[in-house]
Amino acid sequence: MTFNFVTNKDIHKGIEKSIRKNRFSSIFILSVSFLLGFSFPVNDVVGSPSKVEVSQLQFSEKAVGKVVPSANAYKLRQEGEDIVFVSVREQAEWDEYHIPGAISIPHSRLKEQDEFSWKLLEELSKTHKYVLTYCGAGHRSGFVAAQAQERKLTNVFNLDGISFWKEKFHVTRGEPRPPDKEPKVIHLKEAHFYFTAGFEDVDFIDVREPESIAMAGGNIIRGAKVIPLSELTKNLDKIDCKKDSVFICEGTFDGGECSASPAAGKIVIDKLGCKAGHIKYMVEGHGAWEAAGYPVEPYTKSKER
Predict the structure, then answer these.
(1) How far apart are CA 275 and CA 59, in angstroms?
(2) End-to-end distance of the chain based on CA atoms, in angstroms?
(3) CATH 3.40.640.10 for the 60-173 domain, yes or no
(4) Full-model pTM
């Protein structure tokens, strides 16, 4: 049996001959040349000055760090790019709405170094070109993406957040909640009024994760309790249904919408039976509070209730 060996030089000549004779599409030629380590000017391949537009993963800088904009991620997926979305939001948040086709791996499990959860993320990293983690506005998912990078999962990146995604693109929604089971939205000025009035029947409860607080500068609203959303169900005894509870997460200051605070309100209503009128969340969040110059204090572990 005789074997005929073909060198890279032979292949290179063959490709050049094919280009002159058959005028292959630019995409095919560029793909082959890339695999073989060759490069060709696009104009030489297609015989025209037009350029081939190829979408790439893009990043933008936000307060939470480097994120992939939702519009870019959506465009890439529509073009058939191998992207998988991983929601690190908690179950109550996932049940309300999530990106179609996403996989749920709650932040609380990853934070606790749950072996199964990390193995699942590692497997997704091995079997997909890009893994994009997301939460409401990129804080919790940014932490998870950073942890993944430290574990050498170099194709795991942080999406800007589902709050940006749902402004333009479809989300899968769960069953709507009855109005009497919905926590009430309040805004920055109203929350500040509660604070300055010194109402004794109002608790401010920060449900951000400690790492999210650190990423945002390390401060909390002065006098607030800290009960991370991932630990809320284990600390329901810290919630007084006779008082008004104002739940706080990072919020919309840097764009987007934090989903942790409304999720916390729903958990308290469902698990404790608190009246919805007593359960509130400040939609602008801590970022807007601190930017307005309202009173804050450094977060320490002792602040957790």
Answers:
(1) 42
(2) 79
(3) no
(4) 0.74
